[in-house]
Amino acid sequence: MEEKKEKSKAEQLAAKLLFKSKNAYETMSADEIKAAYDYCEDYKKFLDGGKTERECVKEAVKLLGANGFKPYALGDAVEVGGKYYYDNHAKSLVAFVIGTESLENGINLSAAHIDSPRTDLKQHPIYEADGMCFFKTHYYGGIKKYQWTTIPLALHGVITKADGETIDFCVGEDDGDPIFYIDDLLPHLAQDQMRKSLADGITGEQLNVLIGSRPFEEKTSEAVKLNILSILNEKYGITEADFMSAEICAVPAVKARDVGFDRSMISSYGHDDRVCAYPSLTALMTLDKPAHTAMAVLADKEEIGSEGNSGMQCEVFFDIIAALSNYFGVNDAKVRLNSKCLSADVNAAFDPNFPEVNERRNACFLNYGVVVTKFTGSRGKGGSNDASAEFMGYVRNLLDAAGVVWQTSELGKVDQGGGGTVAKYISQRNIDTVDIGVPVISMHAPYEVVAKTDVYQTHKALEAFFKA
Length: 468
Ligand code: MN
Ligand code: MN
Fold this sequence. Notes:
The chain is of the alpha/beta class. It has 13 helices and 23 strands. It has helices at about 10-15, 25, 30-50, 55-65, 190-195, 200, 225-235, 270-285, 315-330, 330-335, 390-400, 425, 450-465; strands at about 70, 85-90, 90-95, 105-115, 120-130, 130-140, 155-160, 165-170, 180, 210, 245-250, 255-260, 265-270, 295-300, 340-345, 345-350, 370-375, 375-380, 405-410, 420, 430-435, 440, 450. It has a nine-stranded mixed beta sheet with strand order 1-2-3-14-4-15-21-17-19. Strands 8-7-11-5-6-10-9 form a seven-stranded antiparallel beta sheet. Strands 12-13-23 form a three-stranded antiparallel beta sheet. Helix 3 packs across helix 13 (about 450-465) and helix 8 crosses helix 13 (about 450-465). The site of one manganese (II) ion (MN) has 6 residues, from helix 8.
């Protein structure tokens, strides 16, 4: 008979006292892993359907509409259990479900963003040089410019014509479409360029998008440009002046794809922050008469500081809370005081190819679950919402009770750099807020990578939060 070996005192103590994060594959059942992979099939469709904030709003409205959500306007009557969405200038969105408890008990709020780094056309974009025709661009958000050269690009956006009509514009996504391209120098002639730093090797003014090379049939000056404008005029009824009232973005013309022989990861443009926006929506759509009113904000302009009337600094998000408070005859300040927010944004996953930018004990790893980021910021937490111990305690208990695989992380080691999220713009309204989200490899690159289990655990975390 085999003798059962007693655990030593040290082993017992270690089990009780020491903390060790867990890989999702150690804790998730086979069924749950399958559910995560299935979940990500729909996430990939969401990614491919929405590459700009405007397209994400449309995709979200489609999903919400199919799940019983109705349009809401400021001041509208609402009912308990009712599901609503507010479309803000077609660029940001607030969706909510009215809870059974008094609104004064607070709202469970999530906030993700749906804009991603890219390069935008300038207002006088089109020019011809040496028989080639280009669009001038101004990049949007934090990019490593050299990464945006020699990849297939699609153009997405809207154009408001002289008569006031606004048309959608999207070329480069269908298999039969042409794509667009930012060129780079061949290595043979790049001796001088290769001696420059990565920051200077490609400059902002070199991010010019190649759009044509065939001259107009009749001899004229700038014949290639004229030919392109004639094609655009025929197809869209636009003239060169119409670009002054257009918003057109060059984004990678790539689709979301599985990564790895095991298909455990997804590569896509714009995981940051659709990888949190999508779980916010799917979590909200699981609700049926929740106790607390639940609200998911999908904000624009996070990548350039949450500015403007579609960014998180815009009053409208708080106007909606005020309008609902007014409708229910409760104090708006008390509603915010008792509200909680998970600011749903990505963090930088530890990358073994660049270990020097992280402090391992306080970094997040692929497949270790949703990341709770107590603080972001840079140079001594500057510009950060720094969540309280009490709120961290609340989130910790919530996630543990719901069986969510989760981890904590900072954004890179001390004084390595840093960044921010929408968290600070919500917490300054007296709402307890902490960042949670998905670890991303190669964040802000044209093609970013996430792990499927982490995406699913983020949905699970947000669902538990909305249902709390
Ligand atoms: Mn982000
Ligand atoms: Mn970002």
